[in-house]
Amino acid sequence: MERKHYNFDEIIDRHGTNSVKWEGMTKMFRREGLFPMWVADMDFKVPQEIIDAIKMRAEQGIFGYTFRSENFYNSIIGWMARRHDLDIKREWIVDGAGVVSALTIAVLAYTKPGDEIIVQPPVYYPFFRIIKNNGRIIVNNPLKFENKRYSMDFEDLRKKITNRTKMVILCNPHNPVGRVWNRQEIGELLNICDKNDLILASDEIHSDFVYEPNKHTSVLSFASKANTVTFLAPNKTFNLAGIPSSIVVIPDKRLRDEFEVTLENLDVETSNIFSIVATQAAYTYGDEWFDALLEYLTGNLKFLESFLDREMPKVDLVKPEGTYLAWLDFRRFGLSDENLSSLIIKKAHLALDDGNLFGIGGSGFQRMNIAMPRELLLTGLEKLKNALGDVENA
């Protein structure tokens, strides 16, 4: 069968759509007119099959209470089997509105105020908020950074565990550093959690974005997964953050019951009609589109590498094994974090994510979103090059 053509070079004007990425920067950066390469939101149109499914449902015209059909769950199970060779049982799946809100439910379900939760910074910064704001204690198990590559520090992890430690939050693939943890690493982490009776909460929202020769290893691929809670979603894969949905996979019945009781007690609406329709369409028909997208993003990553090598050799790229987020090391410029941030915003007129947001190890780094048409990627990189050139010529 001939492969469809997908035009990821198409530039779509998102102004006037209340886009957080393009129009909501003022609150975050306190400045207007920046070029957005920050929040993890792609500038690509979703697959036509998703658009058609939403249109068809909208045309029916009645949007009352709805439920998820077995076809909905089968679409998830099928995607995970095809893409990740995972055998997910229907009864393991609990519905969620989004990964961050579902992680919050897990924190409330499995820990108490004063309990310790381990994170591995520099890491996705909402982790810190959902721990701290719910009265739990953040325990940092910083990643090791050697030869432009990150690894888990298992020796430090073992030392940090106390009788108050109840949970470890894993980011796999890791946001922002781009590591795709291998089977040996995930296995050792699971072993530590099992020996210390810790819940392993695994955020795998970026699991579809993995570049060859790397392969995503889910905690669900291990026989020993009784203490695991895995968070998945179509939101990143298919650019559906505006109609969020998430899937929480909990193999252990006791943990699943505790999660569902907490969800019920909070009376959280887990999603809406259109997120259900979009999720089912995405996981049913999205394979070919996503294959083409991943190929395009691979090209963007190569373009970024080449541009940095040629035009900005002092900016070190921590090459991502997964995600569409580039972790850029500016430490060779010798700038303070305040001056680096000022340079990015005021000189380059760019919106990137400041490395310090991600906790310990983020100083001197910036996170860049490369999920955009290549022409826009070039625009952002040229802005950065010109600003850095002014610094070096000063």
In words, what does this structure look like?
The protein is α/β, with parallel strands linked by helices and 394 residues long. It folds into two domains: 20-46 and 287-393, Aspartate Aminotransferase, domain 1 (Alpha-Beta Complex), CATH 3.90.1150; 50-285, Type I PLP-dependent aspartate aminotransferase-like (Major domain) (Aspartate Aminotransferase, domain 2), CATH 3.40.640. The protein is built from 13 helices and 15 strands. The protein has a seven-stranded mixed beta sheet with strand order 2-10-9-8-7-3-4, sandwiched between helices. The mean pLDDT is 96.
Fold topology:
Layout: H1 20-23, H2 25-29, E1 35-36, H3 48-60, H4 70-84, E2 93-96, H5 99-110, E3 116-119, H6 126-132, E4 137-140, E5 144-146, E6 149-151, H7 154-160, E7 165-171, H8 183-195, E8 199-203, E9 228-232, E10 246-249, H9 253-266, H10 273-285, H11 287-311, E11 316-318, E12 325-329, H12 337-347, E13 350-351, E14 353-354, E15 365-369, H13 374-393
Parallel strand pairs: 1-13, 3-4, 3-7, 7-8, 8-9
Antiparallel strand pairs: 2-10, 5-6, 9-10, 11-12, 12-15, 14-15
Helix pairs in contact: 3-10, 4-10, 5-6, 5-9, 11-13
- CATH architectural name of the largest domain: 3-Layer(aba) Sandwich
CATH level-3 fold name of the largest domain: Aspartate Aminotransferase, domain 2
Number of strands: 15
The domain tally reads 2
In angstroms, what separates the terminal alpha carbons?
A: 57 Å
Total helices: the number is 13
Q: What's the CATH superfamily of the largest domain, by name?
A: Type I PLP-dependent aspartate aminotransferase-like (Major domain)
- Write down the Rg: 21 Å
Tell me the helix content: 40-55%
**Beta-strand proportion:** 5-15%
The secondary-structure class comes to: alpha/beta
Strand and helix order: HHEHHEHEHEEEHEHEEEHHHEEHEEEH
Poorly predicted ranges: none
